[in-house]
Amino acid sequence: MRMLSKVIRLDLNYSSEQSHQYLKETCYLAPFPDEDASHFAKRILTYLSLYELHPVLAKQPPSSRQPDLYLQDQQQHFLLWCQVDLPSDKQLQRASHQAEQVLLVTDASEHNKAKALIRGMPNVVLFCLEAAQLEDFCKMLRGHMQLSVWREQEQLIITDGQQQLEMQVAPILNPLLH
Fold first, then answer.
1. Helices and strands (DSSP H and E) totals, the chain
2. What is the predicted pLDDT for the residue at 107?
């Protein structure tokens, strides 16, 4: 299913038991042209999973030179390169060389292929989202979203007031926070 909105307003209430952060923010998120809802949902769920690190969402569809989400230091060096779809072998090699950490976010159907793709790359971490999680979050997507996110240890609880989604936090979050 294709995204119909050009810009989505996200009113976000974020709370973290571990870091004692309680934030309220309004974000404006733009799906890529012709981006399907599942891909957009993966990007937003990954963004929420890494929220305390202040990730940057790509403004245009990723190419071999740009990730879906990223963190950079003051010298524009990539600390984190995140892709929410499987890159080619060449793209993954480039990401692995350009970034300190690479996070690949897959769904269950891509997981085994991704495992084979990352062999021998110690700075690449794989994070799998379940199909049910993506489907549930796609139901929450609206032109104006109001989400409350609660982080407990390794888990996120996301609600829009009507539906609730529980998911694991991307494994890269804890080492980068310390």
1. 5, 10
2. 86
